[in-house]
Amino acid sequence: NAGSEMLTSVDPPTDLQVTDLGHLGPLRIRWKAPLILTSQRLCVVRYMLSYCNVDSTNCKRVITKQLEYTDGFNLNKGIKVKIQTFVREQCTNRTELHSDWAETVYRPPMEGHVDSKVRDLQCIVYNLEYMDCRWQNGMSA
Fold first, then answer.
1. What values do phi and psi take at 117, rounded to 5?
2. Which of 35, 72, 99, 105 could form a disulfide with 85 if both were Cys (CB 3.0 to 4.6 A apart)?
3. Which of the 8 DSSP states describes residue 63?
4. Mean pLDDT in runs of 10 for the chain (141 residues)?
């Protein structure tokens, strides 16, 4: 029976993607379950997600059963995302297994449309109350 085989190791999630939702900060992180887990019905599967700006050592960690997660980011910098699979219960003889990390770095595009009147736009938000923006005139300005 394919759903009752004991696992001795587990692979990391696949197809890790970071998508800009176009709302000035929120990014969606998505992944797919490891292929071997699609036939394992007795497993309790969780994912440990770790993410932060590339120059930060203060990464957030989230444990979830979902295959996506959304949070706000500073889009002036790249974002480092890591994820690993945790499996336990009957399919592992009640021990907990975890995979290696799958990693990606997302770098938001800093250039806008080539015909834009504004280029190199950068904004800083202060205490969620004030925003200071600076830019250069674009080609059609």
1. -85, -5
2. 99
3. E
4. 69 94 84 85 88 91 96 85 90 86 88 69 84 82 62
d(CA 136, CA 132) in angstroms, rounded, equals 14
Alpha helices in the chain (DSSP H): none
- Are 35 and 108 spatial neighbours (Cβ–Cβ below 8 Å)? no
C-alpha to C-alpha distance for 89 and 4, rounded to whole angstroms: 11
Residue 7, C-beta contacts closer than 8 angstroms, at least 6 positions apart:
36, 40, 43, 87, 91, 92, 97
Report the alpha-carbon distance of residue 26 to residue 90 in Å, rounded: 37
Residues in contact with 51: Cβ distance below 8 Å, sequence separation at least 6, in sequence order: 29, 59, 60, 71, 79, 80, 81, 82
